[in-house]
Amino acid sequence: MYYKFSGFAQRLVGATAAAAYNPQGLKPIVSTESPAPIFGTTSKLAPDFPATDSYLGKNKVPDLQKIFQKADGLPVHLKRGVPDRLLYRTTMALTIGGTIYCLVALYMASQPRQQK
């Protein structure tokens, strides 16, 4: 199943493949004429490379949709397990540490200097 963002409902809604890959009513522009050649020679296809898009790899979107849409009570930023928890906790530690550092620096800046 395909999804697209609904501007009216402000959430993802089911859609057809054409609507999902061409959001907001945009349609692909397909030229019926071949463009005029820029140079005098024609371009040649490389015979060594396959004509398919095999280099793109496997489509991971359906697997990720299953993970993120599972109703397990976890927030989205923690659904992928240990790496997400590690990043989250590191971010929280740096945020709390930075806040404490700023408060200490503010306290030290607010104290008058001692005269010798």
Automatic annotation (TrEMBL):
An example GO biological process term is: mitochondrial respirasome assembly
Location comes to:
Mitochondrion inner membrane
Q: Transmembrane: present as a keyword of the record?
A: yes
Regions crossing the membrane: 86-109
For this UniProt record, the keywords arranged alphabetically read as follows: Membrane, Mitochondrion, Mitochondrion inner membrane, Transit peptide, Transmembrane, Transmembrane helix
Q: What GO CC annotations are associated with the protein?
A: mitochondrial inner membrane; respiratory chain complex IV
UniProt similarity note: Belongs to the cytochrome c oxidase VIIa family.
Name under which the protein is recorded? Cytochrome c oxidase subunit 7A2-like, mitochondrial
Query: Where does this protein come from, organism-wise?
Result: Pipra filicauda
